Amino acid sequence: MADTYREPTTTSAGFTRRSFLKWSGAIAAGAALATSSGCGLTEANEAQQEAAAEGRWVSAQCWADCGSRGFNKVYVKDGKAVKMGTDETHEDTPNCPRVRSCARGRAQRAHIFGADRLKYPMKRKSWQPGGGSNTNGQLRGIDEWERISWDEALDYVADEIKRIVDTYGNEAIVVPGFVASLFGQWDIGRMLSLYGGYMDNWGACSSGAWGSIAPYIGLAEDFNDRIDMRSCDLIVLWGSNPAWSRAGLPTYNYLQSKKAGTRFISIDIFRNATAQALADEWVPVRPGTDVALALAMAYTVLQADEAEGGALIDWDFLDRCTIGFDAAHLPDGAAEQDNFKDYVLGTYDDQPKTPAWAAEICGVPADVIEEVALEIARTEKVAICMSPAPSRTTNGCALPQTILALGAMCGCIGKPGCMTGSDAGHTWLMEGIDLVVGGNIQGDPTWFTPGAKEMLENPIGGVSPSRFTGAPNGMYTRPQAPYTRINVNELWTSVLEGTYTAGKDDVRPCKTQMFYHTHSNLMNQTPGTMLAIEAHRAVEFVVTQNIVMTTTAKYSDIVLPITSQWERVGDLTQGYREQIMLSSRVTEPLFEAKDDLWVAEQLGQRLGIDMDKFVVMTPEQELYNQLAAATVIKEDGKTYEPLLTITQEDLDEMGVEGAPQEGKITYRQLKENGIYQVPRSENDNFGHVCLKEFRDDPEANPLGTVSGKLEIYSPTLAEDLNACGWSTVDPLPRYTPAIEGYEETFADWETKTKGEYPFQLVSIHTPRFAHSTFGNVPILREAFDHPLYMNPMDGEALGLKTGGPVLVSSKWGKVARPLLLTDIMTPGVLALGQGAWVDVDEKTGVDMAGCVNVLNGPNRVGFGHQAWNSCIVNVEPWDGGLLPDAQWQPREVFKEA
Ligand SMILES: Nc1nc2c(c(=O)[nH]1)N[C@H]1C(S)=C(S)[C@@H](COP(=O)(O)OP(=O)(O)OC[C@H]3O[C@@H](n4cnc5c(=O)[nH]c(N)nc54)[C@H](O)[C@@H]3O)O[C@H]1N2
Ligand SMILES: Nc1nc2c(c(=O)[nH]1)N[C@H]1C(S)=C(S)[C@@H](COP(=O)(O)OP(=O)(O)OC[C@H]3O[C@@H](n4cnc5c(=O)[nH]c(N)nc54)[C@H](O)[C@@H]3O)O[C@H]1N2
Ligand SMILES: [Mo]
User: Fold this and answer.
1) pLDDT at position 42, please?
2) Residues 6+ apart with CB under 8 A from 336
3) Where is the Molybdopterin dinucleotide-binding domain positioned along the sequence (predicted)?
């Protein structure tokens, strides 16, 4: 391990003693001023600081996009980041829990000071500017590197941007990113927007089909407040694994429900860690078949209700608050047969959606479907909590409406202890209004908070308001035509095929000649990684700016080393709705790393851009503006007051322009504690029951949908979906077999003869990674395995054993992995974590790292969401050798000079 982990030290790269002393002096002064409020009791923290007399605890950012928003501290002694800590500002209680940090957050030290940290600007040896044969694109990913100066690197990048724009137009520059239009806006995207623009990409990742569809049907991605959830009789975790994918508080909060007596059912492709901790029952289901399962549950409830004379279904709610459930509740112009109830009963299509019908598709035995459906219908307070994972499927578009129908008929909407919906993949999005507001929401900056830089309009594609919210969330909803953006599923195929889909019957030529990678690692994280490699070898120029030697960096021509958050001025970050965190600089920039902002400025100057429009403020000023604008809710639960008291002395110390202000806590207290948490209690005014006002009075509180009601039947949704060019759906949700779904694992469905790819594969979010972030960190590779999960019955049939390496192949690529046979898996279904750094053996074409996107295909569907959980594969023994992950050498290009 000695090679792979350098002792963390900031001495070489300059956490100067002077800045350290200045900073710690500031804290000492601040402690005297601090007043106690919020969950953060200053005494506790003072004790912590005193015990640490020799060094200081610094609140340090964990910026990875896992949505968990843990809280990390670093103990800095003699200029070295010695150890990691977490929130100890107050007693840990269920109402006011400490914000934990997770294994990944604690591994940030190893990440930032790791051997493969990018140290210097670099150029790929065989690449020369000017396009054409100068590029030697076929060598991307296998070429050698040359260390170059920042000036050389910036000249190359600026000259190539200029040449490519002059030759092919601005559309030839693609800035890939799931949130490129937003993240990119912070630096490179803003700069390019002032230089004629760049080609953006669109299409949901996290939210699957849910995020785009929710606004059409009125089912916001929103849950009840965590304290309300303790009143649930039953919580159905439907495709939801917070113990792995929401580190920290969400599972702890569910535990409080469990302790209060809530029963849990997990409906999932595997008995995941959350189910193991909480669930009374696990219902194994095949991926991408949840619509069939939910339809059969609806069928069961309809039958039982009929037998009980209408006593079971919440007809009153359906009548007042929804459209499309039955023929009597269809909008004008709809055909009478196109209603949910008749579709479920098979009135017009001769196929009642019975449990027996669904069982053949989803694998859940008919009696279990009936039993679970009736339990949901007969239990008073039920929460149906679905993550977006089941909708990250090729047929995922029908899921939100189906779940809406089921939740609505069973009375699980708009009451205390009752809710139905999706948590959007980040539980911190849940639960109504934010109690403390301000700063960046790391990893998903769809929220622009007061004080932050303005977005600049990209002349190509523009800032795209979503049809419903008017919010700049082009990431979820397809903006209205004219439409110049590449769907994320076509990022690579557009280069290889020469065209991209701009809408129905609207296929346009693709001009891509350059990829500018910043803030993302899409070659690794988008379906079709082998196509991504091919596409990268086909274009004229690729540049990456990052912290470490990621996949996109590896396949680039120029690589620029960027500072991590620990090397920057600090950051104000909103956590769950109750917390706000202020991180501080831990060390001066390492090696030759520079901030993204600086890079963009330097490029802008070289391109002759009017930089007045670009740089509107310094990072210090931006941080201060966010601090000054931060607000906290008052006890009434409705109005807000400023969060911070900021004195003239604080302003002078920050070196910013502003005016002193009065707020709830002092700036120094926040800076010292690093976190502020709004205290909660059982009957405070901060509770939230989603859709309650609507349920109580739908006329007075209409939803943002076309009808103002929950739309089980949605013509506008169908129209917009079909306008994307990949679907022909009608306004009612129907079960459609998925592309690369269960049905396609068979060569012959009737005789149940399996085909070339007999297994279904699901990508899971696992503890080792936050996407591809941390994929390189040796201690995490050691701590968490990254196997192919398979049921022992399947393993036995194939003669495979745990540990034995296997070759997993799909029509898109091949990966080698150790096998884990475990009865937590549904038979016929496999799982592989997402995030491993693709590492293709050029001789065999096999990825030895287990990057699941090598297996995933960029199937073009629906609202252009990425449908990773629809994937079919074959598995066979692999005898090509496989080094244990923990023994991998880091991608260290240059040693420390
Ligand atoms: N450790 C870690 N945590 C993360 C992340 C990370 O990379 N690492 N990423 C963060 C981000 S950005 C996001 S968007 C979220 C994603 O979080 P989620 O959207 O919740 O995704 P997963 O955790 O992969 O899957 C949740 C559960 O759904 C199940 N599932 C998958 N497909 C199906 C299906 O077709 N039907 C059913 N019924 N169940 C299914 C999985 O087995 C899993 O138990 O995670 C966040 N948290
Ligand atoms: N097969 C499969 N693939 C998936 C998923 C799945 O379920 N299955 N989940 C998907 C989901 S939900 C998501 S959200 C995506 C996430 O995919 P990405 O958005 O690509 O996320 P990361 O892989 O974490 O890459 C982020 C990169 O940004 C870099 N970075 C961080 N901060 C800075 C900065 O300040 N400046 C610069 N220049 N770089 C910075 C990090 O070092 C890292 O390399 O992955 C998706 N990919
Ligand atoms: Mo995500």
Assistant:
1) 45
2) 327, 330
3) 759-855
What is the 375 CA–ligand 3 centroid distance (Å)? 32
Tally of CB atoms within 10 A around 345: 19
Q: Report the relative pairing of strands 631-633 and 579-584 from DSSP bridges.
A: unpaired
| Contact 181 CB / ligand 1 (< 6 Å) | no
Residue 199 DSSP one-character state: B
Cα 495 to its chain centre, rounded Å, is: 26
What's the confidence (pLDDT) of residue 25? 31
The answer to whether the CB of 157 is under 6 A from ligand 2 is no
To test ligand 2's pocket by mutation, which of 157, 241, 475, 547 has the most ligand atoms within 8 angstroms of CB? 547
Residue nearest atom 12 in ligand 1 by C-alpha distance? 66
CATH 3.40.50.740 is right for the domain spanning 122-207+434-677: yes
pLDDT exceeds 60 at position 694: yes
Poorest-pLDDT segment among 134-148, 221-235, 441-455, 605-619: 441-455
Domain boundaries, the chain: 56-113, 122-207+434-677, 218-429+691-724, 742-887
Alpha carbon of 395 to ligand 1 centroid (Å):
17
Ligand 2 atom nearest residue 178's Cα:
19
> Assign residue 308 a region: left if phi > 0, alpha if psi is -120 to 50, beta otherwise?
alpha
**Local confidence band at 319 (pLDDT 50, 70, 90 cut-offs):** very high
pLDDT band at 450 (very low <50, low <70, confident <90, very high): low
Model confidence, pTM: 0.93
Dist CA 690 CA 137 (whole Å) = 53
| Nearest-5° Cα angle at 565, 559 to 568 | 95
The fold of the 218-429+691-724 domain, in CATH, is: Dimethylsulfoxide Reductase; domain 2 (3.40.228)
Q: Which of 27, 33, 70, 68 is nearest to 50 (CA)?
A: 27
Measured torsion, CA atoms of residues 531, 534, 538, 540, in degrees rounded to the nearest 10: 90
451 lines ligand 1 (CB under 6 A): no
Residue 445 CB less than 6 A away from ligand 1: no
C-beta 269 within 6 A of ligand 1: yes
Q: How confident is the model at residue 2 (pLDDT cuts 50, 70, 90)?
A: very low
Does the CB atom of residue 773 touch ligand 1 within 6 A? no
